Amino acid sequence: MNSLVLAFLGDSVHTLFIREHFINENVTAGSLHRLCSSYCKASAQSEALKKLEPILTEEEKDVVRKARNAKTHDAPKNSSLVEYKRATSFEALVGYLYLTDKARLAEILNKTLEDLT
């Protein structure tokens, strides 16, 4: 599957995961949106990928590499091009795992939250 299609799916999956994680926080809807957005922005996803790289399988590394090298037509708005490409790679990995291995997906997503909780 096309890396950017996987990233499109992965963006939704990651956002839902983050929203579900923080839904029980005692905050207003606006505050909840700002909190979740801070974890779903390109710089945060780029950092999440850095944290995950040592535990990725070769197949997962291939997904990340292909997505990083995919030609994108969007310019990053609030991040550097490097962060944007890494975030796209993270999203593609999430999309790939959503389609192929939900147990591994849960492991990966939970790993991104370890230092946050």
From TrEMBL:
The keyword RNA-binding applies. Its cofactor is Mg(2+). The active site is at 11. GO terms for molecular function: ribonuclease III activity; rRNA binding. One of its GO terms (biological process) is rRNA processing. Transmembrane segments: none annotated. It is found in: Cytoplasm. GO terms for cellular component: cytoplasm. The keyword RNA-binding applies. Pfam families: Ribonuclease_3 (PF00636). Homodimer. This is Mini-ribonuclease 3. It comes from Candidatus Caccopulliclostridium gallistercoris.
